[in-house]
Predict the 3D structure of the following.
Amino acid sequence: MPDGFIPDTKVRAQLGVTEMTTWRWDHHPETAPEGWPPRIKMGRRNYRNREQFEAFKASLTQVAIAARRNRAAEQAAA
């Protein structure tokens, strides 16, 4: 597989989600996290654009960091 694509099996492993979760995000986009890359179907398998997937992971990281800072600030104020 060219480096531009990542198979969904690796996507799920990196995110720690199930096949059903990615299926839901693909078929019900309103449930998907913001920036979820669209699937690329090749034969019977699904792939994601590697660049879009890396950007998605980076955005998840930024959201998690912001949430942790907010919790820390709330705890310090209490």
Summary: The first helix runs from residue 8 to 15. Helices lie at 8-15, 19-27, 50-77. The chain is about 60% helix and 15% strand. The chain has one domain: 5-77.
